[in-house]
Amino acid sequence: xxxxxxxxxxxxxxxxxxxxxxxxxxxxxxxxxxxxxxxxxxxxxxxxxxxxxxxxxxxxxxxxxxxxxxxxxxxxxxxxxxxxxxxxxxxxxxxxxxxxxxxxxxxxxxxxxxxxxxxxxxxxxxxxxxxxxxxxxxxxxxxxxxxxxxxxxxxxxxxxxxxxxxxxxxxxxxxxxxxxxxxxxxxxxxxxxxxxxxxxxxxxxxxxxxxxxxxxxxxxxxxxxxxxxxxxxxxxxxxxxxxxxxxxxxxxxxxxxxxxxxxxxxxxxxxxxxxxxxxxxxxxxxxxxxxxxxxxxxxxxxxxxxxxxxxxxxxxxxxxxxxxxxxxxxxxxxxxxxxxxxxxxxxxxxxxxxxxxxxxxxxxxxxxxxxxxxxxxxxxxxxxxxxxxxxxxxx
Length: 395
Hints:
Elements: H1 2-32, E1 37-54, E2 57-63, H2 66-72, E3 76-81, E4 92-106, H3 130-159, E5 161-164, E6 170-173, H4 183-186, E7 194-198, E8 201-202, H5 206-213, E9 220-227, E10 230-237, E11 239-245, E12 248-254, E13 257-259, E14 261-264, H6 268-294, H7 306-317, H8 321-340, H9 347-360, H10 366-392
Antiparallel strand pairs: 1-2, 1-4, 2-3, 5-14, 6-13, 7-8, 7-9, 9-10, 11-12
Helix pairs in contact: 1-3, 1-7, 1-8, 3-6, 3-8, 3-9, 6-8, 7-8
């Protein structure tokens, strides 16, 4: 039970920060171009807590769940904090019960709330120029990308730059969620051992070892290694694993060992440069992996959802702060990529509508936009249901 609570708290904090940054990006971009924000929500309805500045003070509203309304004889509980210098605001800040995202409700925009009213006021989304609309919708993706970049820079500057050894000494033993023990560890290979040959072919460096083993998925290989001057050997059934590469998902053979890696200090400017290239690399890998999924070259069983992310967040939180930052940076890149996809209900879907309206030189009817958003929300809910069931099947 303690482990479960730890995992839930870690997931809420991790995803909460990333969602907050994403929605804050929309918020800041909208404010920059003069769009009025009606609601800033972390999570999707039903609402749990709401804050709003009014002329008579700061109002805090807690919405009572339906199963407690009869008991408490109320649907909501409100409290006013008096302020010396009261200031009214158009924005209601809310925390909602469904922690699968969030949204910024802008005046004059058909969005996740599936509502919209156009009055032609200058502060409405629809009244702004197309480039201003484009910037506002892109704000969340931009902020997630910037956050990932900042985290990668911090990680590189704090931990240094890895210098991989060219020798065939084993520096680590690999484990994964699906495979706790890989074949090398199973036959007794330990950290510090030196792999000397594969199928009687002498090895001179680590790259040779990797190149040979990757060509042996689901095959036996005869491995020899040394430890403290003593020779060992055994036949190993090389496992088949799928790894993301710049050319898409690649099927390779693996023993489950890692090379020795040293670290050298990184200069600040060097960290910035490498932080940028690392962000681009992970974004590219995400795009390649997504293409492999839709092209059928990779299985949908590999797709993780909220439960898997929560479990990973809990596992990472038990390690160290750099591991937490690395995990959040990768998830932030993934959120940016997913949100930019041209799917109704996501930021990319809104961008497509803006582009279509720019080509047509007139806005689409409100009923059409509502229909597009409804279809998009159904697709997203279906995807969330699928990946959640996929996650549960792993346990």
